[in-house]
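Re: the pair you flagged

First of the two:
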Amino acid sequence: MASLTAVSTASMAVARSVAKPKTLRPAFHMAPRSGWINDPNGPVYHNGQYHMFYQHVPDSSEWQWGLVWGHAKSQDLVNWEHLPPALVPEANTPDRDGCFSGCTAVDIDGTPTMLYTGVVRKPEPQHGAFEHQLVAIPTDPSDPDLKVWKQLPGTFLPAPPADMDVTGWRDPFVLEKPSEINPYWYVMVGSGIEHKTATALVYRSKNLRTGWEFVGPLCESNISTMWECPIMAKLTSANPHPAASNNSHLQRHMFCVSPDYCVNMAQYYLGDYAEGKFDLENAAGPQPLDLGDVLYAPNVLTDKHGRSVLWGWMQERPALRPAGKYDSSCCLCVPRVLYLSPDGQAMLQEPLPELKLLRQQHTAWTTEGIPLSLLPGSPVDIAGTVSGSSHVEITVSKGDADSFAVVLHPFVEAGVAGAAGAAIAYCWRINTLQ
């Protein structure tokens, strides 16, 4: 028998626009006022504010060509204010059919700088798009909101060597900034080599905007054919809470990729990186970044406390939200802090501690103060005590049980069939969460 104590913390603290017909959006997770959202792009901390950009279709709840970079700002990574799109495709430019994913870095002179992939659709009957790596900067770097951005002329990266026969070339990410011992910026771009391997191609330059030269593959894998949205973060075993005293000296690099297409889930490796090379052969992995089946194309930020904070695209299933039925689609996962286990052998993740700022009403599931008892084969129904917007914490005392599970039943509107719940299970015997 196991005993269970759960706390439901309803959250209504995130400001949203006035409800409209067919409007149903999350309160805990970042989502635009309306329209489609997918990859988080270029999270950055600048002049005391955090900025999040994201793949966005403002006037449709379905993916379309012509993606813009949506934009939101925050002072605490929890409460976000949406701003006008930062990047919008322009006629007769290398991004005229969409501003695809990328990153934002603060240049040596303090200027926030976007590196992203612009696309131009191939003429029919061909499929896909021509990909270009582009740079954008704020028209007024002193504007605390960074509302208006301009694309700089030309492309900032040379094309891959012609004899590589790449299957794709998109989603630039800064690997390394200049330092006292390294004069170069390093950037990687997701790619694949036809009929061979998935890879990320590395370039370097002493100037963030120009002068880039090809270095070679960061690493290669034959498990997939193309790596989208590659990211990397240097992790430590430091406590993720801002007020903690952190003196950790353990460090490893987390290299994360989104393989092939969004039906696959993001994977990561823990290993060693130096000067444009990641030692994949001796790295631990690949491991799933998330135990669900909807997280893809994550991005990562080093916050003002030095923590690695990650967001990912949370997809939606048509069975629950048919295309076009609502005025918005998808969201970003809640921010999670990444850090190493005390021995440095595993990556740990937990929701950003500051999310507690959203908590308001507290409810505990007990029987006259005594935790609920779980008996084998006898489910305990705690329906009716969770609002549509809740943060739930569950503490389970093992007793003589080998395992336990929590089943989450989805909110389903009348007439929507095929909805499936989710199960969270833990087995003490094999120390596995599923």
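Second of the two:
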Amino acid sequence: MAGDRINSTDCDQVSPDFEEHSANPKFPMSKSSANSVEDLHCELKDQIYSERLSQLKIEIEKLNIPEMQINSEDLHDQFCDPNNPVQIKFNDISAAAYRIKGGVEITPCTRSHMSSLTGMEIFFKKEFLQYTGSFKERGARYALLSLNKDQRARGVIAASAGNHAQALCYHGKMLKIPVVVVMPKIAPIMKISNCRSYGAIVIVEGTSMLEAKNFALKLSKVLDLMYINGYDHPNILAGQGTMALEILEQVPDVDAIVIPTGGAGLLAGVAVAAKAMKPDIMIIAAESDRCAGFYNSMKNGKPTLTIADPTLADGLAVSVVGVNAFASAKNLVDKCVCVQEEYIAISILRLLELEKAVVEGAGACGFAAVLQGSLPELKGKKVVIPLCGGNIDTTILGRVLERALVADGRLIKLWVTISDRPGSLAEFTKSISSFGASIKDIAHERAWLKNDVFSVQVQAIMEVENSEKAKEIEEFLIKKYEKVIMGPYGIQK
């Protein structure tokens, strides 16, 4: 059934030797005996898995990671070679879909409450409902399942600040494959704790994702582990592309898919699968204007270094798009849109209020492109937007929502100079209430006011219905009082 999860591990399958033995009529075996052998097989795998993790921990403890010398050879990733990029094919994605079936959720793709507000029929693919909260599970599981016997026994390593790390750690535990992740010091504590709870070895090192990646690549050589790039390994791209197969089954007559884009792994996988099955479908990339790596790469015709400024869509803040991802996607993408931070914040707010969905900035970037008005060609069409992840840090969520209310013109701040005589403040608040505004905070200022001693400046923060109502309040106060200062509200063009 769609959405059902089977927590499958390698223990779900007994060894080939056992299968051959049990199928031989000379050696009849009862069901209870078969179960006993299978249980023994699982226990043995658990023991080998635990011993390898313990061995890796000992080896890592002996290393002075911050002082390791890293050269250009250490940074070479044989699966992501700029001189020999790999273009994934539809067959790769089909194979991935077969392999990961039962191990990841088939997430719902439901019609949005905001379809009437946007002028297009929007369907949200709710990837934040995956066990670890993001689409990254698709690629992570397929990459792990594709390892050979020796690679599985040795384990894998990756660098990630969040979603890729969590997906790899979780499915590594399910499949009994040792996982080491290097997370930068800027990674949220919650995500670091989650990775450790899945039994992985977590190394917190590096002040940025680039430094963490460099350490991970170096350690992959030192510890003889396979490095899995979270947005450019060919098997990762194939795994992410399985989302498109589900979309086309759930919304067969979809006209366009708007895909949040950072390293372009999801974009590449979805584009290859969707265009193969429905050539006339529009594939649109949406990324933050604070890190427009794919836009710049398309403009220059090759992966281009782009300095990433701080952004709400931190999961998309990749300096250089993947070489395999770019090679696979560049001829299949119909449009690339850069989204302002204010619209990302508002999209998070809208999704929470109207869809009852908690989505991180990176995951909301596709919807933000619609709210920004950057896709007028999709009016009247069926549009699928993946909500890629819901792992927003709880301490950040409150701040984002407040900034979204300001950008939406629903939270305003103003300073008004009024008389300090009795009744003046009551008159001011009564005037505000007539507009349906709710005062959240109010304060008097007398000492630093350069007017006469019979005046007082009132600072007020209030919630209003919309930006139009905020404008009405501003116009009214300017007519009634001599000195009125309005803080910025709404999106500044």
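The radius of gyration is 27 Å.

-B.
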